[in-house]
Structure prediction request, 428 residues.
Amino acid sequence: MGQDRRKFIKAMGIGSVAAIATPAQVWAKVKEPIHSAVRDITDQKQHTTDAYWKTIQSQFRFADGLTYFNNASLGACPVPIREATMQFRNTLDDFPSKYMWGGWDTEKENTRKKVADLFSVSQEEIALIHNTTEGMNLIARSMNLQPGDEVISANHEHASASSPWKVWQEDKGIRIVRPVLPILPENVEEIVDVYRKAITSKTKVISICHLVNTNGMILPVKEVSQMAQEKGILVAVDGAQGAGMFNVDLADLGCDFYTMSAHKWLFSPKGIGIFYAKKESQVHLKPLMVARGYKDTSIRRLENYNTRNLPELLGLGAALEYRTAIGSQKIHDRTYELKHYFRDQIKNYPKLRLKTPALDSLSAGIQTVEILGKDVKEVKKQLFEAYGIDCRPMSGFGLNAVRISLAIFISKKQIDILVNALNNIANT
Ligand SMILES: Cc1ncc(COP(=O)(O)O)c(C=O)c1O
Prediction:
């Protein structure tokens, strides 16, 4: 290169190729805040004490004065994961064309592997999508249903899971069967029975939520899948509220499809979803969108959007590293510990009524409670305005109850404050 050209390049401030970070360098940089957060967690000697959970709580950040009992609406993302995702965004925007189409393939596959390991399945059964809504659309739009075919979708299904079937009903004359679930079942068989009775010779799909967003009831996906499999019926699970809150072993559940929003209980950046399809059931699926590579025979064909939210996808990988450091079993156990603590407190107050089934097989980290004689919308308003507590009011199904999410960043002290606040509102 001539001296004049070199001078010109320098004067223009044009960088040299050596300034571009390799994916490995980016990961090394990104991992530091995660590792230091993880060190803070693992250095604690007593891994189940409140002090241990206080350290984890300190790694989440909320607006001043806010107590967030609303993880079921939208999950919180720990600060180290936010920082890691920001690094991915910055790296991408420093050189936009480099990473999107191949530069981060290995990291993307590593994330897929981490997801597969967490849910005890093969990485060839996992697609990385955007959310549960997309996953349910992907399933419904793929099906080859005929007029008169039946899809079971119980009355507590979320609109994201029932709407794609409604479109089928409106356009093609399939029939949606909507059995009514009990609000406070006392055992699992009560719910299995509802599904058993809804099945007919025309049933093609059972669309079932793992944990309903209304009153936090867990539905018996394993038992329903066994029943369905014997009759050649496909089972599609909306796992938006299940995955990450408690242990989920997809191979053991035996369903055909399971879709989740990682931005809820997996605490990932927003706009990342996970889609599981059992190897032998993948033949039923067609991509919602097609782009170059649509003939890929692997499950990756279902996530092929060309330009997409890659920093958030890698942020999910970071969120799973963080989760693994804590340990899934520990998260599962803590969720149930908080549930029992909350329910035991509520039982002390006659004007507070639990609207979520008691058994651990029937509920976990979402609990609903009604204040007798008070309108839930007013209760929600007072909780926020007087105490800075955010939660979701649930009016449907006669619940008239606030929905309380007990994620791992919630402390027992915060539960005390919440219960005290509910009792105060009950007595005003
Ligand atoms: C049970 C259930 N399914 C589906 C969804 C939709 O989730 P997303 O908006 O992430 O697709 C939600 C959201 O709250 C939900 O609770």
Q: What stands out?
A: The two ends are 82 Å apart (CA to CA). The first helix runs from residue 3 to 12. The longest strand covers residues 203-209.
